[in-house]
Amino acid sequence: MQELEILILGAGWTSTFLIPLLRTHHLSYAATTRDGRSVAGSKTIQWTFNPDENEDSHLQFFNLPLAKYVLITFPLTSAHQSKTLVNGYLKTHDKTPSPAHFIQLGSTGIWQIPQKTLWVSRRSPYDTKNARAIAEDEILSSGGCVLNLAGLWGGARDPKTWVGRVAKTKEDVKSKKSLHMVHGLDVARAIVAVTSDWDKAKGQRWMLTDGFVYDWWALMVGWADVKGSSDGDAVAAEPSEQAKWAFELMKEEKVWALPRSMLALGRCYFGSEFWDTFGLVPLKARI
User: Fold this and answer.
1) Any idea what DSSP says for residue 174?
2) Which domain of life is it from (predicted)?
3) Helix axis angle, 15-24 relative to 184-196, nearest 10°?
4) In terms of Cα–Cα distance, which of 201, 205, 200, 187 is closest to 283?
5) Are 176 and 145 in contact, with CB atoms under 8 Å apart?
6) Quick check: pTM over 0.85?
7) Tens of pLDDT, residues 238-282
């Protein structure tokens, strides 16, 4: 059986950036989807993970190809699920003494707990009772790597379209503080970097952001004309309600200019460590 460089389990939005990048780097790959559809011009393997499979049965993994790295893009929600996937794949794809390495994509949401410091890094306390964090910890204990991703944008995901959903009232705007993002292309670059320098990645949890701490108010004001006239006449456009509310709140809270201070924004993610470690710079920073 030919060994591929990477097997993507669950080829969704991230894979629309990852697959083209793998082609550019001439890295062999295969990907799975629930329905076997094509993703980024590549046909996928129809496959669905069954977390409830009997521990001694590994039938669901037999038809998956052999790969050096297995990327898990969907959330696992218990240590049992992580063990089932990792052990099941390894037992059906035995290539001692060099077994496959596992990379789990997670969320920076695990750090959304009270912190003692303003700056939050990958080493900061996280919610150890979070179901996804529990599953990720199991991946780490087996020598895998976890990439905890900030808010994802790129392609069809346009943050400008989120404003109306996340802030329907002035009180909603008032509650909005910091925002952390990372572009899909930079997620793909990070995955390739991990496979290229596994010694730095193995057993490590990484926080992945574009290095910016965004101020929701500044974004809302900056996108005030997002619903402007179709002819692009920004002067005639009526500012969004969210932009108006942000300016009212600036006056009320004596904020003289945007963006607000890091202290006012609260939780701020230290997002440069991954890029520094792997000798990279985000390509799509600043939304």
Assistant:
1) H
2) Eukaryota
3) 50
4) 187
5) no
6) yes
7) 899 999 999 999 999 999 999 999 999 999 999 999 999 999 999
